[in-house]
Amino acid sequence: MVTVTGVENDSPFFGKVIPGDALISVNGHDIRDVLDYRYYTTVKNIECVFCRDGERFVRTAEKGEYDDPGLEFSTFLMDKKRSCRNKCVFCFIDQNPKGMRDSIYFKDDDERLSFLQGSYITLTNLSDEDAERIIKMKITPINVSVHAMEPELRVMMTGNRFAGDALRKLWRLAEGGTGLNLQFVLCRGINDGEHLKYSLKESAKLKTLISASVVPAGITSHREGLYPLEPYDKASAAEIIDTVEAFHEEQKRLTGSGKFYCSDEFYLLAGRELPRASYYEGFEQYDNGVGMISDMEECFEDALESTETSGTGRIDVATGFAAYPLMSRLAQKFENKFPKRQIVVHRIANDFFGPGVTVSGLLTGTDYANQLKGKTGGTLLISRSSLNADGTLFLDDMTPGQLERELGVRLYTNRADGYDLCAAFAADYTEN
């Protein structure tokens, strides 16, 4: 049962249902959350049971088969997010500085968000009933943070005594036809080496495996009292790449798909050239930092061939250490074609989290402000990922407007997309 907070004007229930009514069931099926609601309303004719002031009543509606009924609820999930029960030795949220807004410290581990938004879950919150519901509703794919396929090691890494047994649900989902994208967060000397090789071999046995990524644990400067972790260096990162690439090639030969990939960060740490975009096949884990650099560069080059611009003068681009070499290359390529456009790329260190964090998405407004003061022209371009989902706040609660005033610039953002970046380089900012 979930409470209705609004009814859209074009809804078949408009005038029949009011805010405050509780939706109990659709076509005889109980409604607990967004998954039930979406699944059971994908038919033309629906009969819904509501409750108002303790009295149940029925409303029927006819609509397009996959049209939304037009009911609104207080939250996206129609109930609360499920919080994480684990105490992972590498948890990034535990490494946040104190004094940030409360939402920064919330750890979600919700299978519904895995399907709807692509977040990764550990399965430790997933009941057998939940797993069967996923299979019944044909919800796919599900993204799973595995870390280790050895039950005892997984228990140790997650700090959850049920984490090893939760692997059983991974196999059940695969048997039921649920597509799986896996993630292995590697901690140096803990789940790499022979442990990694075992995890890769076991994962390959999953019938519905779509992809698996291997990423290094993020390590900030705020690990007081936490499990001691050692960051990967050039040599150890190269070992990981060799292991995963060899397994990728073997799977490609056996199945026609490589499926297993290292994140871009491992290549940057090792000083290795990244594979071409075609290596990543469908870019299943693009948002997990796998193949993003290769795709962005190839898309930028493709866009540049057909780009024309009347834009002149200077624009400043600020980025993290990880993307700085790429941004510098792309800026140079653009200037070579359009010499009247000057693009100045600034490399921003992450003073907030520490030097071990190099991605633009975790830079704060203060990082940008302190390191760019007196160094920019009138136009500044940064990654959209530095801001929250609404585009209104940096991690340190500075607003884009505050940063503009601090630096005396007009601030623009771009997505991690080569076409979007090329268009941003070409834009005529004098018109804005």
Walk me through this protein's architecture.
The protein is of the alpha/beta class and 432 residues long. The protein has helices spanning 34-40, 111-117, 128-136, 151-158, 167-175, 194-203, 234-255, 264-270, 292-306, 324-337, 365-372, 400-407, 418-426; strands at 2-7, 22-26, 29-30, 45-52, 55-62, 71-73, 142-145, 180-186, 209-216, 260-262, 313-320, 341-348, 379-383, 410-414. It has three domains: 2-73, PDZ domain (Pdz3 Domain), CATH 2.30.42; 93-289, pyruvate-formate lyase- activating enzyme, CATH 3.80.30.10; 295-431, 3-Layer(aba) Sandwich (Rossmann fold). The chain contains 13 helices and 14 strands. The strands form three sheets. Strands 1, 2, 3, 4, 5 and 6 form a six-stranded antiparallel sheet that branches. Helix 7 links the parallel strand 9 (209-216) and strand 10. Helix 9 (292-306) runs parallel beside helix 10 and helix 9 (292-306) packs across helix 13 (418-426). The termini are far apart. 34% of the residues are buried. The model has no long low-confidence stretch (mean pLDDT 92).
Q: Count the domains.
A: 3
- Mean pLDDT over all positions: 92
| CATH homologous superfamily title of the largest domain | pyruvate-formate lyase- activating enzyme
Radius of gyration: 24 Å
The proportion of strand residues reads: 15-25%
Distance between the termini: 49 Å
Which class of the largest domain in CATH terms?
Alpha Beta
- Per DSSP E runs of 2 or more residues, the count of β-strands stands at 14
Reported CATH architecture of the largest domain: Alpha-Beta Horseshoe
Range of helix content: 25-40%
What is the CATH topology classification name of the largest domain?
pyruvate-formate lyase- activating enzyme
> Given the C-alpha coordinates, what overall shape results?
globular
Regarding quaternary structure, how should these chains be classified?
Answer: single chain
Low-confidence blocks of residues: none
